[in-house]
Amino acid sequence: MVSLRFAFGPFVLDAGSSALFEHSLPVAIGSKSLALLKALVEARGQVVRKAALMDAAWPNTNVEESNLTVQIAALRRRLRISPDGEEWIATFPRVGYRFAGPLTVAEREAPVVDAGLPLEANPSLAVLPFAYMSADPEQAHFADGLVDDLITDLSKVPGLLVTASHSSFALKARFTDTQSIAKELGVQYIVEGSVRRVAGQVRIGARLTEATMNRCLWAERFDGDLADLFHLQDQVVRRVVAALVNVLPLGPVLDGPRRRMTIEAYDFLVRGRVLVMHSPAGNDLARILLSKAAELDPNLAEAYAWLAVSHYNAAIQYGEDFNTNQALGLAYAQKAMSIDVSDPMAHSVLGFVRLCEGMLEEAESALQTALRINPNHADTMVNMAGLRVLQGRPHDAVELAENALRLNPYPPGWYYWDLGFAYYAAGDYTQAVRVLRKEEVGRLPAKRILAASLAQLGQLTQAQEEAQRFLEINPGFRASRWATTQSFRRDEDRQHFVDGYVKAGLPL
Predict the structure, then answer these.
(1) Distance between CA 436 and CA 45 in Å, rounded?
(2) Same domain, 77 and 151
């Protein structure tokens, strides 16, 4: 099968795999922006009418023309200015758009890939849950913790997009073959394996597969003392990258301080962090386990970072005492930072804490640092999207949230809440309604923004129904009081939300 590659400036668009590269490195870009770019370059300098572009980005869907304007603006920002100082995309008022820059077209052979998530950026990889081969099922968390840490380490490799563990674990429960999982996640490569832990010894078996071709690129077994677990993890990461580096434009494995902790502390850490977002009872148990991990290893920054998340979760998600949990969350986030400034989780959590406090500049600094250390951290991207809304940059917020969903296509519900928040701020009410009606959202504030979005679309009966559902749980809500608690940089953005709430029938 022949695939066309379109080169312009520092960029190459591979039409066959739907992947955009800049200086040979993959570019994280939203699916709609990518579809529009592909339609424009395939026209080879001809004007593409708005209707054709909307069909390309929103097939079989009725959307407002303003959505196209938003996505074209986002695409222009991502491509920046061409080397000759001109825009890559020219506007023809009331007609459409044209790709205006110089374009080189080449052909290459490409593997056949069935429909699934588009391979929006290459190279891309998912690490599936490792099979736990020991007799004690109570220790299965050990294998899951190992996979989480492998994902974190691989995510730091420049040029490699790594699917978040939430989606990898969700898909493993639904499919048994790697090709189906890769298709669903939109990745080319799969890492899978097994772990055996017996009497102070550990054996890790790992395999790297090019799923689109069903071809094993590398497989190896690692044996050692349990105390050497983190050294063995490093070896797995380095061997995976070594197997990929001959065929992909990857950067080197980033060197840094190796993870050091006792196995006892590690056990409590991996059991605790998975429970933080589980339920109120799970969050309470997580705090006990994470506190034990920190007690066993006072220099374990990740334990303090997750304790910070747990306390903010208690305050924001589960309605526990806000002031007490906010203070504890901040203290634990700062503790994590004081221990290890190279830990992306510590920076990400501190950024989230500062965002909740309305300290936008501090949040920006911490979240940017987290993404610089781990550019694949989807949770951080979503928090950055929330920050961009407050900064008055809603279109950037939409792009960030969509990129996060590319890395974590089966996410927790709060991803959709932030994406809906961004869509509303950008004036894309149709998309906001679509996202906020997802069953996974299930968050009370989503009803409030869903009501406002419906009201802005003129669907007042449905808006009032959603507003009433919100008020049944939160009868004391007042839009004017809410406005005083929000950290929008621009008054008009704050008022935009207030107007929507009032239109929906929420009290001023």
Answers:
(1) 38
(2) no
